Amino acid sequence: MLSAVPRRIFHTFFRKPPAQRVTAKVPPYIRDQLDSNTDNEQPLPHDFRTVYPEFLPDPRPEWRNRLRERLERNDMLTRRSVVAIPEFYIGSIMAVTVGDRNASDKTNRFVGICISRGGTGLRAWFNLRNVIDHQGLEIMYEMYSPLIRNIEVLRLEKRLDEELLYLRDALPEYSTFPLDMEPELLPEGAPVPINDIKVKLKPRPWHERWERKNLQGVQDLGLPQRFYNKAKLHEKPWEKYDLMMEYRATIPEEEQADIFHEIAPHYQQLESSRRQSKRRLAQTSRY
Amino acid sequence: MERWGASMKEIERAISPPHEQKKSKPKEGLTGAKERWTEAMNVVPAILRAARCEGSRLHTSSSLRHIQKQTRLRVVDNSELGKSAMLEGRPPRCIHVYNKKGIGRTGDKVLVAIKGQKKQAILTGCHQDQFPLMPKFDSNNIVLVDENGSPLGTRIHVPIPTFLRKKLTEMSRPKGVDYTKILAIATRFV
Amino acid sequence: MNQAEIRKLIPALRVAMTPKKRRFSNPRGPEGRLFKMRTTVNELIKNERMEVNYNRADEARGYAERLISEAIRYGDCHRPTMELADFWLPEKQNVHKLFKVLVPRFKDSEISYTRVHKAPHVYPSTLFDKVVLELRGNPFPPLEKLTTKRNWIHNILLEEAHREYLEKKYKQEGEEEEEVQ
Amino acid sequence: MSLLSVTRSILYGGKNNLQKIEVINLLLQQNTSVLTGGTGGGATTRNMSRMKKTRPFWQPKSTRTLYPEELTPSNEAFGSEVISDQHTSSSTTSPLKCEPWPRGVWSEASMRCGVIARKIGVYPMWDNNGRRLLTTLLEVPDNEVVKYIPPEKLLEHTHPKKNNNTHTKEMAALVVGADPIDPRLVTKEYYGVFADSGLLPKKKLTKFLITPDAKLPPGTPLYASHYRPGQYVDVLGTTIDRGFQGVMKRWLFKGMPATHGVTKSHRRPGNIGSGGEKARVLPGQKMPGHMGNKKRILRGLKIWRVNTKYNVMWVQGPAIPGATGSYVYVYDSWYHHCRHTPDNPPPFPTFFQDEEEGVEEEMYHPDLHVFSKPSIAFNEK
């Protein structure tokens, strides 16, 4: 009967299966056992993840560890109780004062627009950009570095894009801010305004191929059609349907709720300092 | 490019090195265009560099934006040599970096070729990515110095990093070169 | 990856997943990989039970789970969800099935929406592990035998041992209490 | 539990063959379903290796093949109850089964026990000058001394020809375990190792060489406070397994150009030697091969901070071998300039955290910036 079986199938059936590398799977998330009085559990605020994005851990499973993340969050909260880190977004104009051994008065203040932000936990950072004396400048700050004396938000607003790195190739007036800029008024409880300014870029060459980045906050790039044709080839329209790619890049809702529950005792303090900084904005701009 | 009143060919000829210019005699009327061009260069040097790269279809800087040999730099002091080189649209090139890596960082000394001369200079700002709290500049800035470390100009018209205070003091020798005079002619620190 | 994606709030998957995606070879690249997944997800929603290779099933399972949870969360009046369903279910009657049949079925579910069973190699066959992938609550007869294990000899003996153990334990505790009094 | 053994004897060694066959038939009937529940697994094991593993005398084989026991939930609970009764009741009364041993006094020749730690991640700290440090967090998970091996016993089992420490110097050993495990999952022999000390079996077991004055009774817990901030340690770990790799990844070779007439050699090593006298491949030639999964030791790492509540220590550097979540062994540093001095002796034989009162939750190195302190201010000079 064996002769009836095709030779290829016969061999594949009796051959040993290839040795596979079995990677450990990520088990489904199980919520932390909360305290007995679950009635006191506050719901997850809708803006928690946008205001405090660095409290969410890096979602890469190989680097996750619950205990380390908890210790890291404890350190972050401790640091925040010493120096208030205000709410800010990409596009907000900020002033940062740091201790600097080489500066004449041992502190250094820089004003600029936040063009990018990243990092989780104690590694969180942001980039400020300004043009001083017709010279474009960028400084990166680590949010939890003990050298930081003070962080002020002079104008709290968002932009249309998630990164403003194209300001490097924009005309300098779009990233010029006076160093003695006054904090601007924001009414109590008002939503964060979105600045829909359209930036004009310099002619090519650029730092990146901006026509491929689907930018909202720039004027017409004025490129020949072939650039857009090439950009079309590099588009990845299927990525928005890749549900698992999306999932692997996020922290699930239940886990965010647990993280929030863990820092909930300190949340009032965080929120009050956040509100205070907003009120201070309002007060200083009143006179 | 028409808005500057010069065609692409003219511009290329204007900014090409002198020995190439000798081969083809410049036509009449080019001098006017060249002047207009240098004027434009004075206003927006970045646009000129952009136009040049677009014209030659060649990117000479690496993606890491290292300062190494052949990197073009920008003179930010008011020395006659530096000013005229920048105005002519012939920015100096780095021909040596005085450190062991061959990659210049803020505060390093470099040797530059500027208008047919060799001059030493100090890097006062770099375009490549920097460590936290160290400013990253939009251009690679240098200040020309002589053998004793004294700057050729009398003023620096862009900000320089405070880190230079420490670095230049360390580089100076008690009875030798003294680079700290650069700090004295700076207008602003960041 | 240096920061978690914060644009969207996604509920947790109820099944284990691999830390990285599997790269199924496909001449159409990553897009073709998704089309492969789409075939499996579409068939699963349509037939509710299917036999596939383990790797394919395990990868497609996550997509099916996510699709159903999105449908439950946002319903059929939400444009992005409808676009998702439109992409993932090329046979349009399955879109109706997703929103009209599966959403009510899984609305109050606390566990995963899909199951995977190991399947046998049937001679002649390939080397790959075969599994049966199914939606929970499907109309077919169950695959595992629902027999009680209580009457098995070792369970009966262990139960008896448990009773004896507890008796002994309570007696000892009572004696100790008496001693204390 | 005796009845379980009765069942086993019926099944595997009983005298009544008829009864045995009946039971087996019953089991077979119940278990004939081809499709089993749960997730399918693609796990296949390599059985090509001909290398025989010889186990050290203090560490018998720990794992066994698990098969579905088909127990009812109440019987499962009964098993757990027996285990908890056996282990927790004794530990509430006294952690040690034996009388406390006399504690040795530290001298410069002493060698202390180490600990088993788990690498749980890397994050930055800053020192008092604002300089950023990357530190690796090592958790010390439920470390307990399992066994003390006296010098004469150790000498019996060491190879007489090998010139190791046990022959030149009087050395003893402590077997230390970390992370308790369900006793139902391990072999009887492995369970027997822990039976004397009354401990639950441990997931990870290792032996630390010590001098006899550093001996500890079985059952003694070891904490992260065994080390102090400012002390230097050596950390031994197993590097991440990267499988078979080419020379560019394994040895950081440069490869060959992408173009200019190069075909099919873009990532190859090129020449591996010359002819003439040495017309052979010299030993140690860097070639493609298996990369990673090797024991590597990183020495002289400073400890910056210790948390006594969660048993975590912050160790200098991001390069401790192994992936996040892997076990590493931590020893007192072997470097001469990193050793303890009489002015600054270590807690010896270990730090008895349970006996001390008022142990600080966090211990910091004086040079480290503490997050609760205000921002760093540089004074005018």
From TrEMBL, chain A:
InterPro entries, alphabetized: Ribosomal_bL19, Ribosomal_bL19_sf, Translation_prot_SH3-like_sf
Location relative to the cell: Mitochondrion
GO cellular component: mitochondrial large ribosomal subunit
Keywords: Mitochondrion, Ribonucleoprotein, Ribosomal protein, Transit peptide
Keyword ATP-binding attributed: no
MF-aspect GO terms: structural constituent of ribosome
Pfam annotation, one family: Ribosomal_L19
A single GO BP: translation
SUPFAM superfamilies: Translation proteins SH3-like domain (SSF50104)
UniProt cross-references to PANTHER family, sorted A to Z: LARGE RIBOSOMAL SUBUNIT PROTEIN BL19M (PTHR15680:SF9), RIBOSOMAL PROTEIN L19 (PTHR15680)
Family (UniProt): Belongs to the bacterial ribosomal protein bL19 family.
Name of the protein: Large ribosomal subunit protein bL19m
Species: Petrolisthes manimaculis
Automatic annotation (TrEMBL), chain B:
CDD domains: Ribosomal_uL14
Listed InterPro entries: Ribosomal_uL14, Ribosomal_uL14_sf
Record-level GO cellular component terms: mitochondrial inner membrane; ribonucleoprotein complex; ribosome
Compartment annotation: Mitochondrion
Cited Gene3D superfamilies: Ribosomal protein L14
Any Pfam family the entry gives: Ribosomal_L14
Keyword hit for Amino-acid biosynthesis: no
Region (Disordered) residue spans: 1-34
Key words of the record: Mitochondrion, Ribonucleoprotein, Ribosomal protein, Transit peptide
Record GO terms (molecular function): structural constituent of ribosome
Domain of life: Eukaryota
Signal peptide span: none
Gene Ontology annotations of biological process type: translation
HAMAP family for this protein: Ribosomal_uL14
Protein's recorded name: Large ribosomal subunit protein uL14m
Organism: Petrolisthes manimaculis
From TrEMBL, chain C:
Protein keywords: Ribonucleoprotein, Ribosomal protein
Biological processes per GO annotation: translation
Transmembrane segments: none
Molecular function in Gene Ontology: structural constituent of ribosome
Xref: SUPFAM superfamilies: Prokaryotic ribosomal protein L17
Pfam family, one: Ribosomal_L17
GO cellular component assignments: mitochondrial large ribosomal subunit
Keyword NADP: no
PANTHER family: LARGE RIBOSOMAL SUBUNIT PROTEIN BL17M, RIBOSOMAL PROTEIN L17
Family: Belongs to the bacterial ribosomal protein bL17 family.
Protein name: Large ribosomal subunit protein bL17m
Organism for this UniProt entry: Petrolisthes manimaculis
Automatic annotation (TrEMBL), chain D:
GO MF: structural constituent of ribosome
Record keywords, A-Z: Ribonucleoprotein, Ribosomal protein
Region described as Disordered: 260-289
Segments traversing the membrane: none
Xref: Pfam families: Ribosomal_L3
Matching Gene3D superfamilies: Translation factors
GO BP term, example: translation
GO cellular component: mitochondrial large ribosomal subunit
Family: Belongs to the universal ribosomal protein uL3 family.
Record-linked NCBIfam families: L3_bact
Name this polypeptide is given: Large ribosomal subunit protein uL3m
Native species: Petrolisthes manimaculis
